Amino acid sequence: MTNLWSSMAQRAEPYIPGEQLNKENIIKLNTNENPYPPSPKVIEAISKEVGKDLRLYPSPTMEDLRCSIARYYGLETENVFIGNGSDEVLAFSFMAFFEPGKQILFPNITYSFYPVYAKLFHIPYKEVPLNSDFTVNVENFFHSDGGVIFPNPNAPTSIYLPLEYVEKIVQNNREKVVIIDEAYIDFAPESAVKLVNQYDNLLVIQTMSKSRALAGLRVGFALGNEQLIQALIRMKDSFNSYPIDRLAMAGAKAAIEDQAYFKETTEKILTTRTWVTKQLEALGFKVLPSSTNFVFASHPEMAAEKIYEELREKDMLIRYFGKEPIDNFVRITIGTRKEMEQFIETVGEIVG
Ligand code: PMP
C-alpha cells in the first residue's frame, strides 16, 4: 500500500505517558497526579458553567482566566498565555521560539517530551549530561545557539536548581529564549516568575495538573514578556483558536483563586514527602533530594524493574523508565498518607 503519511507524521516518535489503568482499588503513584480532589470551588464553578450556554464558543482571548492568573503572580493579562495542558504550551513554545538549524540545549536526564518535539519540528538539540549527583551543570547551558529549555525542579530527578543559577542561564543567553518548565514548582522553594519583568528572553511554563489537582481538565500556562506571549498567541490562533473549553476555563479560574485549599493540600503532600523519604531510606533506598510531588529512588540490592513489576502485581503503580538512561531508579508519586503507608509496607516486603 502507498505510504500516505506526511514526512512529519513519519518523523513523529510519540511520547508514551504513564499507564492509566482502568481498574478500581489500585494505588496509583505513576504519573504525578495530586492525590486530593480539586478545590470544592472548582466543582461549584464547573457545575455553574454547565448550566450556562455550552452552545456558544468559549472566549478565544481567555481574558478572565488570564487576568486571574496574572493577578495571582502580580503580572498583567498580556504576560499570560493559556493552553490545553502545559504539554501543548510547550509544543507552541518550540514552534514559536526554536528554529531548524539552531541547536537548543536541554539536560540529560530530563522530561522526555523535549526530544519528541525537537524531532517533530526539525530542531537540532544537544542533551547536556547532569553532574554525577544528578544536579544541573549551569555553565554548560551558557551561550546556546538556539535557546534552552529545562524543567525546574527537574523531572524525573526531582532536584531543584536555585533561582540565582536559573538567572545566570537566562543572563548568558540574552539573544535566545530560555524556557523554564515549572510543572512542579509549587512543591519547591521559589518560582522564576519573579524574573519575568526583568528578562524579556525568559518564558516560564506552569500547569494546573499537579499542585491544583486538575490533570483531567488540561490547563497549562506560560508567563513572560508581552512579545513572547504575542508569539504564542499567534501560534495558537494558527492551529486552534479555542484550546480551552468553557468548563476548563471556569474550573481553572476557581482553582487559582482558592489560595487556602491550595496551601492546605500542598502542605499535606510536603509532609507526606518527608515521611516517605525517611521510610524509603530506612529500607535502604537512595532517595534524591526532592522538591516535587514525587521522589526518585534506587535500591542498591534490587533492580528497579523488579521493584516496579512486583508492586504492579500487587496493584500499586509506580514509574519505571526502562534501563537507559536512568538505570536503576524508579519514580514514586506522593499519594495520601494512607496510600503511602500501604506502599511502604508492600515495598518493604519486596526489598526486605
Ligand atoms: N512538564 C513536565 C516536566 C512534566 O512532568 C509534565 C507532566 N507529565 C508536563 C510538563 C505536562 O503536564 P500537563 O500537560 O499535564 O500540564
TrEMBL record:
The biological processes this protein is annotated with in GO are: L-histidine biosynthetic process
Database matches in Gene3D superfamilies: Aspartate Aminotransferase, domain 1, Type I PLP-dependent aspartate aminotransferase-like (Major domain)
Report the pathway entry. Amino-acid biosynthesis; L-histidine biosynthesis; L-histidine from 5-phospho-alpha-D-ribose 1-diphosphate: step 7/9
Q: Which PROSITE patterns match?
A: AA_TRANSFER_CLASS_2
Show the InterPro entries listed in the entry: Aminotrans_II_pyridoxalP_BS, Aminotransferase_I/II_large, HisP_aminotrans, HistidinolP_aminotransfase, PyrdxlP-dep_Trfase, PyrdxlP-dep_Trfase_major, PyrdxlP-dep_Trfase_small
Going by the UniProt record, its keywords in alphabetical order are: Amino-acid biosynthesis, Aminotransferase, Histidine biosynthesis, Pyridoxal phosphate, Transferase
Listed Pfam families? Aminotran_1_2
Q: Where are the transmembrane segments?
A: none
The enzyme's E.C. designation: 2.6.1.9
Cofactor(s), by name: pyridoxal 5'-phosphate
Enzyme class comes to transferase
For molecular function, the Gene Ontology terms on record are: histidinol-phosphate transaminase activity; pyridoxal phosphate binding
Enzymatic reactions:
L-histidinol phosphate + 2-oxoglutarate = 3-(imidazol-4-yl)-2-oxopropyl phosphate + L-glutamate
Q: Which domain of life is it from?
A: Bacteria
Q: Which residues in this protein are found as N6-(pyridoxal phosphate)lysine?
A: K210
Q: Where is the Aminotransferase class I/classII large domain?
A: 25-346
The subunit field of the Swiss-Prot or TrEMBL record says:
Homodimer.
PANTHER family named in the record:
HISTIDINOL-PHOSPHATE AMINOTRANSFERASE, HISTIDINOL-PHOSPHATE AMINOTRANSFERASE 2
HAMAP family reported for this sequence: HisC_aminotrans_2 (MF_01023)
Family recorded in the similarity comment? Belongs to the class-II pyridoxal-phosphate-dependent aminotransferase family. Histidinol-phosphate aminotransferase subfamily.
Q: What is the protein name for this chain? A: Histidinol-phosphate aminotransferase
Its taxonomic path starts at: Bacteria, Bacillati, Bacillota, Bacilli, Bacillales
Corresponding gene?
A: hisC
